[in-house]
């Protein structure tokens, strides 16, 4: 028997409960069974836990798009009992039972070997948010390398800075020598964001309303987890030849933008997908996180909770009440 959060949709409405399951109830289509040590709560997990958006595609569902743990059984040629692994995305926690549980059974092709320098807790302190931030940073680095743009040659904007993607992105970019400007709706978090490496902090209101198609050139790069008008304004104020890595939709899925910055300033908009990213990109991102991440800063942005606390945390993260990252000790 093992503990798990289980989402159901009875006639009375959408529910998420902490319950006990038998290992025999795990999905039959997986070929690797994992004893989970840690999971996490991301924005998408918040949507699943609360039912605020139709993220969950079948019921009953164990939510949780991330987990890290140890292989207990494998019919996959790549994995053996005792291997330390992690998983992000692939529809886990949406269409396939996920990581907010003490056990999971998944396809071995979805797993990544846990980097030697990261503990399971470290990996889930990062989770999909940190892994996505790294994908964004790698995309910008490739762009800057091709353009000959050196660190420190201009400002880099990080929107949604108080969230998980934003916090990790600030730490990574500052560590690489970039001048980071953090955008947040919580000005009281300015000291916290500066402790992560932000050179300055602006209020999100500067970006979240309709703006001119072309604005004063400011950013050499942007990491955006907000979308909508914020992303449109970020594009409009990116410097000639600069780039934006877009990975989120906290403000909205729309993009009320103009082609002007693309055809008059030659900017590039990179779409960052963490769910179905090729394995080579996943492994490169996790290897880069292992090499470059400031562990002290990771600890500063992380709060540990138990499995039973994750349901309430889902509502908190949607309401913007969570700073940084939540790591879930599923065995606490």
For the sheet with most strands, the description reads: 7 strands, mixed
The general outline is globular
Mean model confidence by pLDDT: 95
Separation, N- and C-terminal Cα atoms:
16 Å
Number of domains: 2
Structural class: alpha/beta
Q: Helicity level, as a percent range?
A: 25-40%
Radius of gyration: 20 Å
How would you name the CATH homologous superfamily of the largest domain?
NAD(P)-binding Rossmann-like Domain
Number of continuous helical runs:
9
Strand fraction:
25-35%
Q: How many β strands by DSSP?
A: 15
Provide the CATH top-level class of the largest domain: Alpha Beta
Task: Tell me which CATH architecture of the largest domain applies here.
Answer: 3-Layer(aba) Sandwich
Helix-strand string? EEEHEEEEHEHEHEEHEHEHHEHE
Q: Which stretches are poorly predicted, pLDDT < 50 over at least 5 residues? A: none
The CATH topology of the largest domain is what?
Answer: Rossmann fold
Quick structural summary:
It is built from nine helices and 15 strands.
Description:
By secondary structure, the chain is an alpha/beta fold. The protein has 2 domains: 2-114 and 301-329, Quinone Oxidoreductase, Chain A, domain 1 (Alpha-Beta Complex), CATH 3.90.180.10; 129-271, Rossmann fold (3-Layer(aba) Sandwich), CATH 3.40.50. It is built from 9 helices and 15 strands. It has helices at residues 43-50, 120-147, 164-175, 190-196, 228-236, 260-264, 279-292, 295-300, 310-318, and strands spanning 2-8, 15-21, 32-40, 66-74, 84-88, 103-106, 112-113, 155-158, 179-184, 198-203, 219-224, 238-246, 268-271, 302-306, 325-329. The strands form 3 sheets. Strands 3, 4, 5, 6, 7, 14 and 15 form a 7-stranded mixed beta sheet that branches. It has a 6-stranded parallel beta sheet with strand order 10-9-8-11-12-13, sandwiched between helices. Strands 1-2 form a two-stranded antiparallel ribbon. Helix 1 (43-50) packs across helix 9 and helix 2 (120-147) crosses helix 7. The two termini are 16 Å apart.
């Amino acid at each position: 028997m093992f503990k798990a959060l289980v989402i159901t949709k009875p006639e009375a409405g959408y529910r998420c409960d902490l319950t006990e399951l038998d290992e025999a109830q795990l999905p039959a289509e997986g070929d690797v069974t994992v004893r989970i040590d840690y999971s996490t709560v991301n924005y998408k997990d918040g949507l699943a836990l609360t039912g605020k958006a139709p993220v969950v595609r079948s019921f009953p569902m164990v939510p949780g798009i991330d987990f890290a743990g140890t292989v207990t059984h494998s019919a996959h040629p790549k994995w053996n009992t005792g291997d330390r692994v992690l998983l992000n995305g692939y529809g886990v926690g949406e269409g396939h039972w996920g990581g907010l549980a003490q056990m999971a059974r998944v396809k071995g092709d979805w797993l990544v070997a846990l980097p030697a320098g990261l503990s399971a807790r470290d990996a889930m302190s990062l989770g999909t948010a940190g892994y996505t931030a790294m994908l964004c940073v790698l995309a910008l680095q490739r762009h800057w390398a091709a353009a000959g743009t050196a660190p420190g040659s201009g400002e880099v904007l990080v929107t949604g800075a108080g969230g998980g993607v934003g916090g990790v992105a600030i730490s990574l970019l500052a560590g690489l020598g970039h001048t980071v400007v953090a955008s947040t709706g919580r000005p009281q978090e300015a000291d916290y964001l500066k402790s992560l490496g932000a050179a300055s902090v602006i209020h999100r209101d500067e970006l979240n309303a309709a703006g001119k198609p072309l604005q004063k050139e400011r950013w050499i790069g942007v990491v955006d987890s907000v979308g909508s008008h914020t992303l449109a304004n970020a594009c409009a104020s990116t410097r000639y030849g600069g780039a934006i890595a877009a990975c989120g939709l906290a403000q909205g899925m729309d993009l009320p933008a103009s082609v002007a910055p693309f055809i008059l300033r030659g900017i590039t908009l990179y779409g960052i997908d963490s769910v179905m990213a090729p394995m080579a990109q996943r492994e490169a991102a996790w290897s880069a996180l292992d090499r470059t991440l400031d562990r002290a800063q990771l600890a500063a942005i992380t709060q540990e909770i138990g499995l039973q606390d994750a349901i309430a945390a889902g509502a908190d993260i949607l309401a913007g009440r969570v700073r940084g990252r939540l790591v879930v000790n599923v065995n606490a």
